[in-house]
Amino acid sequence: MKREDEDEKETKPSELLDSLPIELKMDILTRLPAKSLMKFRYVSKMWSSFIRSQELINSFSSKSSTQTRFILALSNDGNFSEPEGNLSFYFSFSDDAEESSCLVPNLEMAMPVISNHISGSCTSVHGILAVIHSFQLILCNPSTEQVIKLTPGYAGFVGYDPINDQHKVLSLLNQFSDDPVEHKVLTLGVGGGWRRIQGLNQFYTAVSMGVCINGFVFYGAYSPTPPSNPGIVCFDVRFERLSYIKAPEILVHYGNASIFIEYKGKLASIVRDPFGYFNEFDLWILEDVERHNWSKQTCVFPFSVWDSLGVMKMCIPGTNKADEIIMAPKSLSHKVQPFYIFYYNVETRNIRRVRLLGIGDNEEFRTCYELNYRSNVNIATHHFE
């Protein structure tokens, strides 16, 4: 009897999980956070093999893609004379609370920035954060805290091919010289390095950040020289083909401050005054890609929105799951005060304010992360593990 009790005690939890049917193991593990799964790889070789299996990865990705969040990046860039002290902190917030008046942050990771006094951008492309800072593209996965720094270049865009489940990076070279623009593509996770692809039959200059929508990357451009032939370059991630879409000049008028987002599955552009207060913006939507047809509507909200910000510039990074347009301050205010973001419903023209708890609203927070009014704010929408 004593021997049987000892045998029962010797049964390890990992062995109990190993004995379960594959379907049940799959259901259990896909309910866990990605960071927990990364730790469980070290339990045994069998666990590591199962967690790394493509079947589990696909199941986890499918489930997590329905639970999107947004990432807020705060940088203390420029606060230190030594570059080692400059960091970016990434916090995640739920995207499901449509009626909430406040959201609670979760710190995902911290990452060194490249150099002082240069603000960057942050977008989420199918679970991968694409961070541009000081003309360098950095890819990171907050779930695993993996970071890839790519060779600095003039322009870099990240896309995702949903058919082949591949992330690709498009890089543009020589676009400011007399030579034709050279286009190179890097497929993540596949050997072989950068590959040159066929470009457009025209000269052009990329002038905006990019946005990936349903397997296509879009970014603003001028061709051949400003202000002639403004338009949008479309990169087909799967087939690695480039095309040029005609667009109203106003969409790329503000260059790198131009805004392109996904709105209800379509490419959209938001035109507003990027240099100060505004209480309206024009929403342009690409209705027909083949015919280059755009629609336009003006969205108006009260000037009182600015009363609680304490800053003059606002970013518009994209939409939430309910297709509300997100607006947020570009930096922390001079004063220690609550940090708010705003959701604008285009159809009802209603705007609501949501407080992000803990983000710059107390001195302890700012001291802990060594932040001040020069701290830049970037937001990546539709992120998932």
The pLDDT mean sits at: 83
- Count of domain modules: 2
Q: Spatial order of the strands in the main sheet?
A: 3-24-23-22-21
- Overall SS class: mainly beta
InterPro entries: F-box-assoc_dom_typ3 (IPR013187), F-box-assoc_interact_dom (IPR017451), F-box-like_dom_sf (IPR036047), F-box_dom (IPR001810)
Pfam families: F-box, FBA_3
Organism: Capsella rubella
Protein name: F-box domain-containing protein
Task: Please describe the topology of this protein.
Blueprint: H1 2-9, H2 13-18, H3 22-29, H4 34-40, H5 45-51, H6 54-64, E1 69-75, E2 87-94, E3 102-103, E4 106-112, E5 121-125, E6 128-133, E7 136-141, E8 146-149, E9 155-161, E10 166-173, E11 182-187, E12 195-197, E13 205-213, E14 216-222, E15 231-236, E16 241-246, E17 259-263, E18 266-271, E19 280-288, E20 293-300, E21 314-319, E22 325-329, E23 340-344, E24 351-356, H7 363-368, E25 377-383
Parallel strand pairs: 3-24
Antiparallel strand pairs: 1-2, 1-25, 2-4, 5-6, 6-7, 7-8, 9-10, 10-11, 11-12, 13-14, 14-15, 15-16, 17-18, 18-19, 19-20, 21-22, 22-23, 23-24
